[in-house]
Design a protein that fits this description.
The structure holds two protein chains of two kinds. By secondary structure, chain A is of the alpha/beta class. Chain A has 26 helices and 27 strands. In chain A, the strands form eight sheets. In chain A, strands 8-7-3-1-11-12-13 form a seven-stranded mixed β-sheet, covered by helices on one side. In chain A, strands 18-17-16-19-20 form a five-stranded parallel β-sheet, with helices on both faces. A four-stranded parallel β-sheet of chain A has the order 24-23-22-25, covered by helices on one side. Classes of the chains: A alpha/beta, B alpha/beta.
């Protein structure tokens, strides 16, 4: 039993690091466990049963396959294990959520043993991660007159997998813990240089914030056993920076609850808060884990008698504290009234935005995936049965303003929308399901994306995606043991899934560490494309691109769709002339500085920057859209002129051709398909049939600004201001200074 | 490096210095990474890559990639593989406590450079010419030094689109 012996040895090593036995993903090891379970005299039998029940990873890991198969054998009586009765075996399958477990359950439900079929059907009615292979089976059985299949479909059509779940708690008691003052980046929750350990959730959890913080959190939990710890960004925004899902996974690991007693180290339902709210991408990951994200507003600008902010000595508005969230403060969230209350029941702030109908659904279902897949399953079942689908899920908000024009991003969303009931075009604020054209994955978040795909039991890229790329740019500099262990595995997984990969699993073309954004910029061949990428700098200069957490990326790959509200836009145009000695990067920094000067607050935050830089080709325009991440914008979209766009598309075509020449094309001929799309678009523009995307004259923007190029006459430097007396002002990306500020004296190392 | 034009700027600055007869020495390490291999191929064809090679103390080798992260730096030009590493603080960081000037976009605490016991690390972000000049001078440049260094160099330029004619009946010949 060699794998098992190795596993025992690994357990000892991990004990020294203060870690539990590693969750099992290898089917071969599970097979050994099963042999030891069947052997009644085996010395490792008790431990094997334990590992089998509690320490095996579900989803599409090979371990899940072996586990599901053995559970089926127990159910049909081929194998008898005293400790795992058939009823318990069904329960274990129910917790495995998808892939092999659903396959086995379907086999049992559509099989010849009536009693077993009914029991299996009962479990299937709680499942949502069904893919084409599974729904095809149900469809065929139903058409053949199988009554169990009919029963299951009727349950799906009513969305009982959702309606039968308990409602969310009306009152949630929380106790606060300040993770840091100022903006809290996902780097603090999950440091970038610990990326290699992300798939080992327990190990990775050890790097959240600090050991001292972890102990303090545990102490708070002991002192307040009936409250959930809420992680807070005091005077800042929670979760800025990278899109890594490992950030929220770590928070859930320390402050949330276990998703299932039979799935190791996967926690859900974290509660987080920020004085200035939650960063958009991080908020999405909170939704994925069925958590709660609160905009605390516990510090507000002090205003004078006329309601104007009072400016202090530093030139910034003075803040006054409305209520305290210092460590150990006990608060109550009332989810029905949507308010945050203090210990005595006084209202502190309205938190309705955290409990929209959609967000409540995510919390109820334990995560947003279950809702996404649930909706698709309900649609399928109703269509198969030929009945009208009952309205179960909160209807998507659809907002239309008659007579109002559309911004560029509104046009793109309307073009790509799926399943919309309104006949009028939709405006900002509407929730839409949209088709995604391009998906990008890089090599540190990619590992988590592959985990999410496994958890969703997905095996192949959605046929509606135009193209997807997996890069190797984050492990370019150092090819150490961790990279050698993880990256080829990742590339093989993604290549099999249907993505173009930087590294050839067959070892034929030379591995390239090309920066993901450059490649995504090159493979975006339509100015009306929607791009989703697993990196916060997914900000292409053609189409509209959104950086997203690995879950959203996984959903985009598996379903070809994304769901999000149409963002508001801020229009940015330019006047004047660039001085000869200025570089475009200076214009980008100056835009931020001028915006902050004009508006006082960051109006870009959470919105789309519609930047009219029509004469710049996509490569150079990217310097602007790239920085929109630092502007905390939701996305950026370049409004291009016809001939510039054609040139950008021609350049993209030539770069895609180079990829084909290098041998990167896959069986589905994805790259050739992209060239065809580029050609079609170029023709549309040339002929005048569909010119380059422009917003309507009468579109409505949240704000508009004109950047004055004439006043930019010095290089502009973004300074982290590490010694600012006000801690919350450090590391913001908002402190932009001209180079003369440093008087040619600042030493650079 | 954000786009090919930025690399060409580095090369032009080096060529400018060559012309002036000045010896090209770096008072601070300058790490240069191209965005993609395509761009490196194009630069090789255009004769620019060898200028970078001429002044670099390290050039990446795909057949013998580094197995450990770089922790200390010499005052020289490093030609690194395309990728998002030192620029984003992924696998490598600057020396602790350093003041870094970079063309990338992240300046969070500890991201590109960590604190040392004596001094906080800080990464300031700027355009390509400012970063290169600062590496040569070992400090931020004065406006005169900056203007002299970019004299005659094609920086990334942008001219806003002309306003559309108000007359909707204008005809194109």
């Amino acid at each position: 039993m060699s794998l098992y012996t190795e596993y025992l040895a690994e357990i000892e090593t991990r004990k020294e690091q203060g870690l539990n036995p590693k969750p099992i993903e290898d089917g071969a090891l599970v097979s050994e466990l099963i042999e030891q379970i069947k052997d009644l005299e085996n010395e490792h039998r008790a431990a094997s049963i334990d590992f089998f029940i509690y320490n095996t990873l579900p989803g599409t890991t090979s371990a899940a396959g072996s586990k599901a198969e053995f559970l089926k054998e127990i159910i049909v009586g081929t194998a008898i294990v005293d400790e795992i009765a058939p009823k318990f075996a069904f329960e274990l399958l129910r917790h495995m959520k998808g892939g092999p477990s659903v396959r086995e359950l379907l086999g049992l439900a559509l099989g010849d043993e009536p009693k077993i079929a009914v029991a299996a059907a009962d479990v299937l009615k709680t499942q949502v991660f069904l893919y084409e292979a599974d729904t095809d089976r149900l469809d065929a059985a139903y058409k053949a007159g199988n009554t169990v299949a009919t029963d299951i479909l009727e349950s799906y059509a009513q969305a009982e997998f959702f309606t039968k779940l308990p409602d969310i708690d009306e009152e949630i008691k929380v106790v606060t813990y300040i993770s840091a003052e100022g903006d809290v980046s996902t780097d603090l929750l999950s440091p970038g240089n610990q990326a290699h350990s992300r798939s080992d959730r327990e190990l990775h959890g050890k790097c959240m914030i600090s050991e001292a913080a972890q102990k303090e959190i545990q102490d708070l939990q002991k002192q307040h056993p009936d409250a959930r710890v809420m992680l807070v960004a005091e005077k800042g925004t929670m979760g800025v920076g990278s899109s890594r899902m490992s950030g929220v996974n770590n928070v859930a690991l320390w402050t949330g609850k276990q998703a299932s007693p039979y799935v190791p180290f996967v926690n859900i339902a974290p509660v987080v808060g920020g004085t200035n709210g939650i960063s958009p991408i991080f908020l999405t990951t909170v939704g994925v884990t069925g958590g709660i994200g609160l905009d605390l507003k516990n510090w507000v600008k002090k205003v004078d008698a006329d309601g104007n902010p009072i400016i202090g000595n530093t030139g910034d508005p003075i803040l006054e504290q409305k209520y305290s969230v210092e460590n150990g403060t006990v608060l109550t969230i009332n989810t029905k009234d949507k308010k945050l209350l203090d210990e005595d029941g006084n209202e502190l702030v309205d938190v309705a935005s955290a409990f929209t109908p959609q967000k409540i659904e995510f919390i109820k279902a334990g995560g947003s995936y279950a809702i996404v897949f649930g909706k698709k399953l309900q649609t399928f079942a109703a269509e198969t049965l030929g009945i009208e689908m009952p309205v179960v899920f909160a209807p998507s908000k659809e907002i239309s303003h008659e007579g109002q024009g559309l911004t560029a991003v509104e046009k793109i969303f309307n073009k790509n929308a799926v399943g919309v009931s309104s006949k009028e075009p939709l405006h900002a604020g509407s929730d839409v399901r949209v088709k995604v054209n391009i998906v990008g994955s890089q090599d540190t978040t990619g590992l988590m994306t592959s985990q999410e795909l496994e958890a969703m039991a997905a095996t192949v890229i959605s046929p509606t995606v135009d193209g997807a790329y997996q890069s190797g740019c984050h492990t370019a500099s150092v090819w150490d043991i961790k990279a050698q262990e993880n990256i080829p595995k990742l590339m093989k997984f993604m290549n099999n899934f249907g993505l173009i990969t930087a590294r050839d699993p067959r070892g034929v073309y030379h591995s390239m560490t090309d920066v993901i954004h450059k490649v995504l910029n090159d493979i975006t061949v339509d100015d009306r494309a929607i791009i989703i990428g697993g990196d916060s700098h997914t900000r292409m200069s053609k189409g509209v691109a959104f950086g997203a957490d690995s879950g959203t990326v996984a959903l985009a790959l598996a379903t070809g769709e994304a769901t999000m509200p149409i963002p508001e836009s801020v229009k940015v145009t330019f006047q004047g002339e660039m001085a000869d000695h200025m570089d475009f990067r200076d214009v980008v920094h100056a835009t931020q500085a001028q915006m902050l000067q004009k508006f006082g607050d960051n109006v870009f935050q959470g919105r789309v920057i519609e930047v009219h830089i029509g004469t710049l080709m996509a490569d150079q325009a990217f310097t602007f859209t790239d920085w929109s991440a630092e502007m905390k914008a939701k996305a950026a979209i370049c409004i291009s002129e016809d001939h510039t766009l054609i040139k950008s598309l021609e350049l993209a075509k030539s770069r895609i051709q180079i990829m084909i020449d290098k041998g990167m094309e896959n069986e589905a001929e994805t790259l050739q398909g992209l060239i065809a799309i580029a050609d079609a678009r170029i023709e549309e523009i040339r002929s005048g049939a569909v010119p380059a995307l422009q917003p309507d004259e009468d579109a409505k923007y949240f704000a508009e600004m004109v950047v004055d190029l004439d006043i930019i006459n010095e290089p502009m430097i973004a300074d982290p201001d590490v010694n600012n007396v006000d801690v919350s002002k450090r590391y913001t990306h908002d402190t932009i200074r001209p180079v003369s500020f440093y008087g040619a004296e600042k030493q650079v190392d | 490096m954000v786009q090919k034009g930025d690399l060409k700027i580095v090369v032009q600055m080096l060529r400018n210095l060559e012309k002036s007869g000045q010896e090209i020495k770096f008072k601070a390490p300058l790490v240069v990474a191209a965005p993609t291999y395509n761009i490196i191929d194009e630069l090789k064809e255009e004769g620019d890559w060898e200028v970078l090679q001429r002044y670099s103390g390290f050039e990446f080798d795909d057949f013998m990639p580094k197995a450990t992260p770089r922790k200390e730096y010499e005052n020289q030009l490093y030609l690194e593989r395309p990728g998002c590493n030192l620029c984003m603080g992924n696998q490598e960081k600057a020396e602790k406590g350093d003041t870094v000037l970079a063309t990338s976009t992240r300046l969070f605490a500890g991201r590109v450079v960590e604190d040392s016991a004596e001094k906080k690390g800080e990464s300031l972000l700027a355009s390509t010419p400012v970063v290169v000049l600062s590496a040569i001078l070992g400090r931020t440049p004065s406006m005169e030094e900056y203007k002299a260094a970019v004299e005659g160099i094609k920086l990334t330029k942008f001219a806003p689109p002309k306003k559309t004619p108000l007359d909707a009946l204008s005809v194109h010949y």
